[in-house]
Amino acid sequence: MADRKEYRRRKRNQKQGKKWIIPVVAGAIVLLAAAGVLAWWLLRVKTTPQDAAEQYFSLLNEGKYEEMYQLLSEDSKSGISQEDFVERNQNIYEGIEAKNIQITVQGEPGYKEGKKKAVISYSTAMDTLADEITFDNKMNFMKEGKEYRIVWDSTLIFPSLQDGYKVQINTQTAKRGAILDRSGQMLAGQGTVSEVGIVPGKLGEQKEESVKKIAEILGMSEDSINEKLNASYVQEDSFVPVKEIAKNDPAEEELLKIQGIMINDKEERVYPLGAAAGHLTGYIQAVTAEDLEELSEKGYHENSVVGKSGLERAFEDQLRAADGCSIVIVSEDGAEIETLALKPAENGKDVQVTVDAGMQTKAYEQFASDKGTAAAMNPKTGEILALVSTPGYDPNDFVMGMSDKRWEELNNDENKPLTNRFNTSWVPGSTFKAITAAIGVETGKIQPDANMGDVGLSWQKDGSWGDYHVTTLTDYGSEVNLENALVYSDNIYFARAALDIGADTISEYFKKMGFDEELPFELTLSTSSYDDDDNIDSEIQLADTGYGQGQLLVNPVHMLSMYTMFVNSGSMIQPTILYQEQAEAKVWKQNVVSAETAELVKNDLVQVIENPSGTGAGAKIDGVLMLGKTGTAEIKESQDDTDGVERGWFVCGTTEDIEKPVLAVGMVEDVKDKGGSSYVTAKVREFVAAYEQ
């Protein structure tokens, strides 16, 4: 019984063994067959010269220089190491910023010595940082085994490039265009500055003490100076630039007392008006990596500068300079062999603006101690004569190297000198009463000569207003008509007028005047608005809007444009800052009100200055007839709030055809303890009077 069981076990194992043997043998046969096919294929496949060339140039476009090297003949490899091959190709192609390398093979390969050698003729075109480079060339091959390998030397890069030659990139610096005022005076352009540098070997034994003094005078950190002195290129006799300062800066005398200091003249972009036009001109700076993401397509590179704000930014396309560049092959001794590409330098174009440098400076001087803004324009042509934001910053600081100390001062100053206030929209206060008057007269809701009745110094429509009252300051008698309401700046009159006009109608006219619309101007300015959702929500808001409060926000330049309708038969003139020899007005908003309405309101605004009791009487200039309107906007949490600020405004302008027509506006953020709007009135008068002299 046991023997039978053992017999069956052996038979079963034999069967299982056969099951394993069959697949193994079959697999072996398949592998042998595949190997045979592979060997047969390898024996038959041959790399053609075209294949090698195509692969070489494909790898070149991808910058795979190590893989390119593997395609070289053994003889070529013996002449140059992979490391040197990669370095030479990479330095040349990437140095000239070669892109879009296009190769066109010309005809069939030529063979020699029983096809052991071959040659292909081809043409090349590539984009570079200078210009397109094109040339015809030949590529030679040596057959090694079944493959054609490339016979390489430097002439495969450029036909005239010998192995000992170099590819040199020469840059010709172009000049950025200047910004000129209306008379040709420079607001921004090339000038001379003082470049402060250190000669390390002449610092003497008191090096640390000297560096400390230099840092204090220049407003720099000692670490930043030492970092420059410790740069790898610095030798004992090197001139190490540290900072640029204005020519004849008082700091020069102190610096020259320190051993090792040297001061050279250097050409640099300068801003002669300094802080007086800082927000207007803006400034330039070196491009950042972020800038290049957008600007590289326009030809900017890592050494380019770009306008960062103001006129420098607005007219960047005209002002920018495009540096020239040449790509040249030079021999071992520096002799020029061939110029491969040349892009001539292109200087930027000068931009002349309508600004009057004298008026700009005078306006800045008047407002320099305040947080405020001032603007002036020719009301007949729309030419901007001045745009001021105070306090300002000196754009020369940005160009010559802003010290850490100065940067902290600007950023931490509670008066925010980096804030552009002429760009912003503000609550206009009573200066807006002229606009309400024009809408009211045009729509027939204001009868100019009608007496609306004296209701005292505090008023509300009815009890539905609760504790809210509109108040006014001056009791000017019982003759409550339009002229008196403007002359004495009666809040209540214009609150009542706004209610009579109605929210829908007043909103309609605001739209006609450009509210919630981008002002067509070369500099980007904030839009004016009358409500956060374009919907005047209540009677109280409507009443407040009538005298320039509520949710009204008006940009100063837009305010000037609205006031131009009073001297242009009811049409608003478009502001411009680009100078033209024969300036012609461009109407922005045609016939906002009728010529009759504009004339009537203008005459009443003239009385604001001409009437000795008018709120703008202090702005009178002998021999010059002007319209005007004062304004004080209260910014407070509630009607009972006594801690809020008071924005002071004044608008005035000439009304006759004179040699120097002008319309000006000024605003100071808080005039509560400075005399109210009369504080601003005096300042605006001063720079307007200076312009008229």
Commentary on this structure:
The protein starts with a helix and ends with a helix. The longest helix is centred in the first third of the chain and has 43 residues, at 2-44. The chain contains 23 helices and 24 strands. It has 693 residues and is of the alpha+beta class. The radius of gyration is 40 Å and the shape is elongated. The model is unreliable at 1-45 (pLDDT under 50). Helices cover 34% and strands 21% of the residues.
End-to-end C-alpha gap:
140 Å
Helix content: 25-40%
Structural class: alpha+beta
What is the helix tally? 23
Model regions low in confidence, pLDDT < 50 over at least 5 residues: 1-45
List strands and helices in order, with pairings.
Blueprint: H1 2-44, H2 49-62, H3 65-69, H4 74-79, H5 82-95, E1 99-105, E2 110-112, E3 117-127, E4 133-144, E5 147-151, E6 166-172, E7 179-180, E8 186-198, H6 207-218, H7 222-229, E9 240-246, H8 251-255, E10 261-270, H9 278-281, E11 284-286, H10 289-295, E12 305-307, H11 310-314, H12 316-319, E13 324-330, E14 336-343, E15 351-352, H13 357-367, E16 372-377, E17 384-390, H14 395-400, H15 404-412, H16 433-443, E18 458-459, E19 470-471, H17 482-487, H18 491-501, H19 503-512, H20 539-546, H21 556-563, E20 572-573, E21 587-589, H22 595-610, E22 626-635, E23 645-654, E24 663-668, H23 677-692
